[in-house]
Design goal:
164 residues, alpha+beta, Arc Repressor Mutant, subunit A, 2 domains, three-stranded antiparallel sheet, 33% helix, disordered C terminus
Length: 164
């Protein structure tokens, strides 16, 4: 049975769902919820997310499990290969998973990503370089990309992020 804990963050609250010692969901929510159980795992996840927002963490090392269709899981695994500070288009993700005509399906899988931020669906943009769709809202997507672009300035991003 999944449980959850809720922590405050810049866009309302961060809901961390977990089963045992594995995170199964990380979502933005507007309300803190009533029944919640903070644990050492949820504290670790929240601390890593806070470090990410402070610009001192670029990757995450907490245990999580992705629940979805085979296609969705392939997309989400491909998202995890996008380096910090870079972006990819939906078409590039579709091609990378061997299905170059599935850009729209990649978009739908992206929208259903259960573990935002850590599985970086915010790094996927439209073919024209515009920000499109994000389960956490376009305001959050824009800020996540700006944060990564600012923290990445030590090198030259190989993406369109400098156009945002």
């Amino acid at each position: 049975m999944a449980e959850y804990a809720v922590y405050p963050f810049s866009w309302g609250f961060l809901e961390i769902r977990y089963e045992g010692n594995v995170v199964t969901g990380l979502n933005r929510t507007e309300e803190p919820g009533q029944k919640q159980a903070r644990t050492a795992l949820t504290d670790l996840v929240y601390r890593q997310i806070a470090e990410y927002f402070q610009g001192i963490r670029r990757s995450f090392c907490f245990p999580y499990k992705l629940h979805g269709t085979e296609f969705q899981i392939r997309v989400w695994q491909e998202l995890c290969k996008i380096p910090y500070g870079e972006t990819r288009t939906y078409g590039e993700i579709a091609a990378a998973i061997g299905n170059p005509k599935a850009a729209r399906a990649v978009g739908m899988a992206n929208n259903r990503n259960p573990i935002i931020i850590a599985v970086p669906c915010h790094r996927v943009i439209g073919a024209n370089g515009k920000l499109v769709g994000y389960a956490g809202g376009l305001d959050m997507k824009r800020e996540l990309l700006r944060l990564e672009a600012d923290c990445y300035r030590e090198g030259v991003p190989r993406s369109v992020m400098n156009r945002l």
